[in-house]
Batch of 2 targets.
Target 1
Amino acid sequence: MLLAADLVLKVSNSKTEVQCIGKDERKMNIKLATTALKQSDNFVYLGGVISADSSCDKDVARIGIASGIVRNLDIWKSKEITADNKVKLYQSLVQSASLYNSETWTIKEEHKRKLRVF
């Protein structure tokens, strides 16, 4: 029988970092046992970059990735592919690439003006 006391969480001092997110660039002094943890300005979560300044500029660049997919797909002028299938390809290839990890974005007014998609 497994008891709660048998379950132990082990945290790696060398792999653990901390981040302060917001307008203030505070230096934090957080220790794990006796080891001070490194403070990170950016980290990758689910393929998206989380910045200490709460900016999502690096992730909004996914729009460029999506437009590259559109340019490289040579199906848009094809008469052999139905409009319905083109829409399905767009949804599965382009939208998924552009919106991946979008739930972590902090969209600011300047992004809305630049993108004009919101």
Target 2
Amino acid sequence: MKKKILRNEPLLAWILITILSVIWGSSFVLIKKGLDVFSPAQVGAARMAFAFLIMLPFAITNLKKLPARKWLIIILVGLIGNLIPAYLFALAETELKSSLTGILNALTPIFTLIISVSFFRHKASGLQIFGLLLAFSGSLGLSFINDNGNLGNMNYYVWLVVIATLLYAVSVNLIKSFFSGTGSVILTSFAMFSIGPISIAYLFSTDFFHRISYSTGAFQSLLYIMILGVIGTAFALILYNKLIKISTTVFASSVTYLIPFVAVIWGLIDGENLFFLHYVGMIIVIAGIYIISKEER
């Protein structure tokens, strides 16, 4: 029985990566739609609040399964792997195209590798280091492309995405190191349980509900955020945590080099313009990530 499961795991990993790339690749345009009415902080908090509410029954029924000594790690995973990046991505999209944000999200495996090497005794090959430098150079180039498709001044909002991907990478390594034996549904519910009340409390402290009542298009924007929270966060995290457990951390995070293609497609459908240099930068980033993940597998 065990041998059969092991034989199926590589196929399952690829299936999960494909599903996740579609879900997360679509999340950037959903964030953009949420920002039509709500502030970046409200979009991030509402996204986590919806995810929290959908996962709450699982968390409550399994609270006794989590040792008290691991709650601090769960809170860290909730904050740095979910709440803070949700805000940073929304803030970044106030000045960046959703498709460009999706491209930059592919940096996650770079930081995953760096953290694995620095803190978790992972050994990097020379080819992986080359891939890291290649991908980073592509992202750096993207930060200098202006609205006309030419090179100009650096857009510092790019670095909000860089910080978010760094936090994602830390979270990936924490999950792999401390929760390899925890079910993916339970782990996701605990992470949401640790940040959900904070998110809801924040929303009540703002004009969030006033905007729902009086802003044009509020319910439509709220629907996009709900989809983002329920499907793009809660459901996707269940799949992702499962992927992390049946594969390596770098392979799991390599889902992000498929996400840009989905994000770009949605961006084009939504009327965004990408220029030649954007595609060059995307190819360079994805090539670097591919080299890193191929070496890991």
